[in-house]
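Bumping with the actual sequence this time:
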Amino acid sequence: MTDHIEPPTLPQFMQTVRAAFAFLQPFGFREISPPPHRAKERFQVWFRANDRFVIIKGEGYGTMAAVMLEQDGLELGEIDLVPAEERPQAMPKRQPGQLEQIHEAARRLEKHGADFLRGEMGRFLARAKAIPPYKRTGSS
């Protein structure tokens, strides 16, 4: 028998993200609207502090969540700041639901991403990749 986790509603998603990522506020992050060229997806929340962004997106029709860090045309998944030995196992026995994944990602970012959140960019710059063209504006 397979456990089926009901995908969250948009209000559930938004409420969970805002609560899980409330720790960003002391670092100067504030919630903003996504830029128009990336606002098509409804299940996303953007936080900004100066030129740094934390972007939480719902994916996979409510089954997955992704947290990306962006700065100056570069991006990095929050998981890439977590030491390899502390990353989740590749195939968990039970796939966590989207809301649980959001909470887990927030805990990882709070524990392992404080340097990025403070604006210390060394580890981010060493690992980040260029934002793909489909995420850039037409003028880039």
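The tokens above came from a reply further down the thread. The chain has a mean pLDDT of 91.
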